[in-house]
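Sequence decides. Consider this:

===
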Amino acid sequence: MRSAVSAGSIFGLPHLAEEIVSSVQEPFALLDAGLRLAAASPAFYLRFGLEQARSVGRSIFDLGSGEWDTPAARELFERLAPRREVVERYPVEVRCGGGSSARVELSVRPVREGLNVVGCYLVSFADVAPELGSDELDAIRKVRVGGGDLVLVLEPRTLRVLHVEGAARELTGYAGPQLEGVPFGSLLHQEDREQALTTLAMLTPGEPHRRISFRIRNRGLKQLWVEALCARTAKAAGPQLIHVVARDISERKRAEEALRWLGRQTKLILDSAADGIFGVDRSGTITFINPAAARALGYRVPDLLGRSHRILIADDTTVAGFADLVSRTLEDGLGRTLADGVLRCVDGSEFPVEATCNPAREMGCVVGAVVTFRGIAERKRAEAAARRAEWLAGVGETTLALRHEINTPITTLLAEAHLLEMGGNTPEEERQMIQSICAEARRIAAVMRTLAERQDAPRVRVEGTQRMLDLR
């Protein structure tokens, strides 16, 4: 399950997840990591007298006129929920639309991503059932029947069904009278049967109701998730009874599973990506990093979560470096690409990269940035090798030109000088030889003068530890 992270968006709510939450027909809400309302079912807004347009994006403590800002709610959301796997049946009293108050029980499940980082909270709501009086069955009929609930009255010792009211056919596929005398356990999914029956058997008279969830074996071979309030009547005289009021929560379960699936898919994509990927919040703190990114820089994933992204930046003093890439994206919400950047490894060495930084948005606001990078050390080595090959080719071309322009006159010059050295030449022949020697010497001098008078000065660059002169 994914919050604000998302798969396509680690910080935002995926459209599919929003549609799933909105389709739940009972009060259900999804809060982001900052306890802001990201999505909720229509029943949530109706139950607590809220308007969707004025609620989405606001802290749960600011909903309506601050009805949720109570010590009990703050204890639940700020202290208990972030530290537990799930908080179930936590009682909270809130005011509803019209000034009335309601006592509800909240079940909060934090959805974690990465290593124990809360991405969002799933919150379900249930009214606290009133205490059963002496006319329990009549009261249940008046209040519950017609509300989509299934009401069962069980015999405590055998847990057989004595009486049925409400949505029997919708939940079980049987008419109410068909269920009378049936063992309650025969209606339950085999994997949930033992726990549910044990809970019912442990009920004591006068004890506050217990809330349990289990699957019902529907006659149509469907398996429906239900949530039930269970209580044992406390009469001074007469037989004791167990009352079970069950409600279909299959849609909520499907919503939770779909959100968990989205989270698993997003994590799988991040973990299997070959490129390094990490996300930062508005303050530049790393909120997630995939294994490829941590491995490339020599870190473990837990070493970087919660730390400033500047620990990874080696060129943060440059104008167009990595620090500028992230900070400007957080500032103006525009994506950027850095073709030649440098990150710092755990051992202090530099890791050349090309990187892309894109904003992460939530409800239209920039809440962070996602950086994707890949190492370019191999590319740099290939470019250096290509430059050296190019330089060597230039040297070869220059050498051929010099050999042609200088070796030819030198050959002639040496031949004429050799003839002079041998002697036996007439004065006229010696004069011609000397003229030829002078002409070839002047030709060599002209070539050297041409090289010296080039308008563009030779360029010198460094490749590794060698100074290389561009002679082309």
User: Anything to note?
Assistant: Confidence is low (pLDDT under 50) at residues 1-12, 129-134, 142-146. The two ends are 62 Å apart (CA to CA). The chain has 14 helices and 17 strands.
